[in-house]
TrEMBL record:
One of its GO terms (biological process) is rRNA base methylation. Coiled coil: none annotated. Residues 434-445 have a biased composition (Acidic residues). Residues 124-402 form the SAM-dependent MTase RsmB/NOP-type domain. This is SAM-dependent MTase RsmB/NOP-type domain-containing protein. Residues 464-478 have a biased composition (Basic residues). S-adenosyl-L-methionine binds at C231, A232, A233, P234, G235, N236, K237, D275, D290.
């Protein structure tokens, strides 16, 4: 019975985008991890079919079972290797088995398939085919990249040096390489498992996808600065920030302590209710903002619900609110906004809409050689995906406070260069059709307001001014009685 309770708990967390299935399984400390792993992953693959069966038979209403628990039980009863529990749950499922089997048969007939495996959605099949590399981030608070490489080589791993291109990230067997963009990341073949490895248990390495390491790498706060990880959980990015700062950061506790982070202050409160001007936060200089999102970029969590427009609109509104709030911290110098979403509505549209009302911040181009850029008109941002970067889907934008010497940039969506700020259309729509064109004279008047005490001379061209001054000079130098063409 404990197996099904734990599997349901993990499945519910995964479907709420609270973590990757594999990480949730291994972090559960369940006795038989392999059995739990198989049950959770197989149930997740058949999730859409199981939900349809449960809904059509009204199983949840009849049995009072919670949906995640009903799904793992129905999976094992109909598709898996049979129920492994006794008692009331088994009695309830067996009582309804005929109705559940009939519902499964109807789905097969409707889809024209005979094998249960043919019921798996295309997105779930693609997840199986997208074997991404196994990424390890070396925790430089406890060890070094060089020492970790030496340790692994002594264990029989073959080191290939630093990767140069994305093609070098395709590894097999016990070979590994150093990442070409983030030096503290080591790359292994997809099936390499470190959950029981000494380096992982001791906190010397962190199991973290490369895309998830991008926000802290891009923010790059200097040692001694005050940093806020605004939406931190479970804390991998926070520990990465601490490592980059040589353990000097403001803002998570078991995971952070295991990672050797001693400079954090953990606050369990609503970020939107934080007062940026309070003594506790007014000195914050750097913010990493990774708010709740659809999770559509997570390969192991991708499903059809990711295109629910009502949900996306709600998430985007929340993300925009968080970003605007973050930019209100008085001493803020730089902010990284990131999501594990592939949707424009949660990414480029949020950033564009925020910058429209916060012109004292500008976008800064990041990692110029990165292969996948933000969607037009924001190429300064970067995106990640399984196909182009061999990672989960991700989005990262770096915003920096303008200095007094920064020029005021006005651009259109057709031409956006490095460092440009785009004025987007209202309502988080794609900034494309409606564009403003500013003439040189208008831009000059905007940059240098006219002094009302001085005469306006913009209507006369420069040569006319020169001729007039020459005429006045000639008049002044004329002797009495001398006449000329301008004397009358």
């Amino acid at each position: 019975m404990a197996l099904y309770v734990k599997a349901a708990e993990i499945l519910e967390k995964a479907e709420k985008k609270q973590g990757a299935l594999k990480t949730l399984v291994y972090d559960s400390k369940f006795g038989n991890v392999k059995q739990l792993f198989a049950l959770v992953f197989e149930t997740h693959k058949f999730s859409a079919v199981l939900e349809e069966i449960i809904a059509s038979t009204k199983l949840v209403k009849l049995t009072k079972l919670r949906l995640p628990l009903a799904k793992v039980l129905v999976y094992d009863l109909l598709i898996g290797h049979g129920l492994k529990c006794g008692g009331a749950w088994k009695a309830v499922l067996l009582k309804n088995r005929a109705r559940l089997q009939a519902a499964l048969a109807r789905i097969k007939v409707r889809q024209g398939v005979s094998d249960n495996q043919d019921l798996i959605s295309d997105s779930a099949k693609q997840q199986d085919q997208q074997n991404l590399p196994r990424y390890l981030r070396v925790n430089t608070l406890k060890t070094s990249v060089e020492d970790t490489v030496d340790y692994l080589k002594r264990e029989g791993f073959t080191y290939r040096g630093q990767a140069r291109t994305v093609d070098d990230l395709t590894l097999k067997g016990k070979t590994f390489a150093q990442d070409m963009d983030i030096p503290e990341i080591l790359i292994f073949s997809p099936k390499t498992d470190f959950h029981d490895h000494f380096l992982y248990k001791a906190g010397h390495v962190i199991l973290q996808d490369k895309a998830s390491c991008l926000p802290a790498h891009v923010l790059d706060p200097p040692a001694g600065s005050v940093v806020l990880d605004a939406c931190a959980a479970p804390g991998n990015k926070t520990s990465h920030l601490a490592a980059l700062m040589k353990n000097r950061v403001c803002t998570m506790s078991t995971l952070l302590l295991r990672a050797g982070v001693t400079c954090h202050q953990l606050k369990h409160q609503d970020f939107l209710k934080v007062d940026p001007h309070s003594p506790e936060y007014r000195e914050v200089e750097y913010i990493l903002l990774d708010p709740s999102c659809s999770g559509s970029g997570m390969v192991c969590l991708r499903d059809d619900s990711d295109t629910d427009q009502a949900r996306l609109s709600s998430l985007a509104a929340f993300q925009l609110k968080c970003l605007k709030h973050a930019l209100s911290f008085p001493c803020l110098k730089r902010l990284v906004y990131s999501t594990c979403s592939i949707h424009r509505q949660e990414n480029e549209d949020v950033v564009s809409s925020c910058l429209q009302d916060n012109t004292h911040f500008r976008l800064v181009p990041v990692l110029p050689h990165w292969p996948e850029r933000g969607l037009k008109p924001l190429p300064q941002c970067l995106r990640a995906s399984p196909t182009s970067t061999r990672t989960h889907g991700f989005f990262v934008a770096l915003l920096q406070r303008r200095s007094d010497t920064d020029p005021v940039e006005v651009t259109t969506t057709d031409s956006v260069g490095d460092g440009d700020i785009v004025s987007p259309c209202a309502g988080q729509k794609r900034a494309a059709e409606s564009e403003c064109e500013v003439s040189d004279s208008e831009e000059q008047s905007e940059l240098t307001p006219a002094d009302p005490t001085e005469p306006t001379q913009h209507s006369e061209p420069a040569p006319a001014h020169k001729k007039r001054r020459k005429r006045k000079k000639r008049k002044k130098n004329k002797t009495p009685g001398e006449s000329g063409p301008d004397s009358h």
